[in-house]
Amino acid sequence: MRVPSEPLEPFRRGGGRALMLGHVHPDADVLGTLLALGLALEPRGWTVTYGGPHPAPDSLAFLPGIERYQVLTGVDGRFDVAVLTDCPNPARTEGLIDAARRTAGVILNVDHHPDNRQYGDVNWVDPTAAATGEMVHALLAALDLPLTPAIATNLFTAIHTDTGSFRYSNVTPETFRIAGELVAAGADPAAVSSALYERRPAEGLRWLGETLARVQVSDDGQVAWLPLPPGAVPESFVEAEDLVNYPRSIASVRVACLLRARGDEVKVSLRGKGDVDVNRIAARFGGGGHRNAAGCTVKGPLETATRDVLAAVRDALAGTAADP
Ligand code: AMP
Ligand code: MN
Ligand code: MN
User: Fold this and answer.
1) Interatomic CA distance for residues 51 and 44, integer angstroms
2) Whole-angstrom distance, CA of residue 23 vs CA of residue 123
């Protein structure tokens, strides 16, 4: 992967102050890349602050350096550079980017979402990257920053989760080449898989059973959805489980949806297979994402959100031919 010179420029100086700013409901791609870049810069004379609008989920407590990631309500002090990774839309900082703009010399936007809004002073957006982790790996190499086991573990986890454990259609030969380098540098694939997928509490399988019993499938088998009312199962469980993958795993399904009610809104996750562009469905509700994985938030109760999203899914399916 070729790194343009502009995103390297802010780090060419001998050191300084950097803000690593995360997006709402941070996942492993954003946290792993912010931590990897920050941990690589610190020995080079940089003072780094890590944070965002929401806390890191418990399920990612194993990421090296995660204890440094804070919930920010504002941005204090001056920064030479503020870095946002994996964040396509400035609104996904809940206003923190506005504070960062006032206090940081440069806003650097590094992302792989095709609908990135190019909101930075410097924008490096590569939708061919399976994860922002691939891009930050290239950025570190271009800056001659060494991969420690802690840095490698953060980047490996970022790539692992965004590729569904190297199973999705975004995986390329480059993904495996980078993953190989990260493992050689000290990332432990078995330990990462175990930390991500084998940390269920004993009640977890019962919650999983109760949750999966809610999956519904359309008569033609092409759409499966999982509506989750508030308080049905603990939030920490929902965050740790990739629940939308279960409806997606049905052979006939072309679009899968997870609809999680919380407060007066519903968080929707969409997954597509083949030629259905779920990003366009999410965009109709003000959301976004990737061609095969996208999301949005819909105001109102679970029943109406489910009805409206399924209608939009039907429209999208009507516009594409079924896979042969
Ligand atoms: P998720 O279903 O939450 O795992 O998200 C899948 C993809 O959709 C990720 O790339 C997210 O960045 C994107 N996404 C999820 N929710 C939203 C939203 N409300 N607005 C914009 N993009 C979203
Ligand atoms: Mn993300
Ligand atoms: Mn990502």
Assistant:
1) 20
2) 16
pTM beyond cutoff 0.90: yes
Cα R_g (the chain), whole angstroms: 20
Q: How far apart are CA 298 and CA 313, in angstroms?
A: 14
Residue bearing tokens 């899914």: 313
Are the C-beta atoms of 1 and 129 separated by less than 8 Å?
yes
CA–centroid distance, residue 219 to ligand 2 (Å): 33
Question: Do 285 and 298 form a contact (C-beta atoms < 8 A)?
Answer: yes
Q: Is the CB of 22 under 6 A from ligand 1?
A: no
pLDDT in tens, 55-113: 999 999 999 999 999 999 999 999 999 999 999 999 999 999 999 999 999 999 999 99
DSSP letter (8 states) at residue 3: P
Which residue's CA is minimally distant from atom 8 of ligand 1?
294
Using a 10 angstrom Cβ sphere, with 0-12 exposed, 13-18 middle and 19 or more buried, the burial of residue 114 is middle
Q: Whose CA is nearest to atom 10 of ligand 1?
A: 289
User: CB count, 10 Å around CB of 40?
Assistant: 25
| E strand spans, the chain | 16-21, 46-52, 69-71, 79-85, 104-111, 122-125, 216-217, 223-228, 255-262, 265-272, 288-289, 293-299
The Cα–Cα gap between 243 and 265 comes to: 18
> What residues pair up with 117 in beta bridges, in sequence order?
none
Instruction: Give helix 132-142 / helix 149-162 axis angle, nearest 10°.
Output: 150
- What proportion of the chain, given as a percentage, has pLDDT over 70? 99
Tell which atom from ligand 1 comes closest to the C-alpha of 86.
12
189: left (phi over 0), alpha (psi -120 to 50) or beta: alpha
Is residue 202 within 8 A of residue 211, CB to CB? The reply is: no
Which ligand is in closest contact with the Cα of 290? 1
Q: Are 37 and 158 in contact (CB under 8 A)?
A: no
- Count of C-beta atoms within a 10 Å radius of residue 55: 14
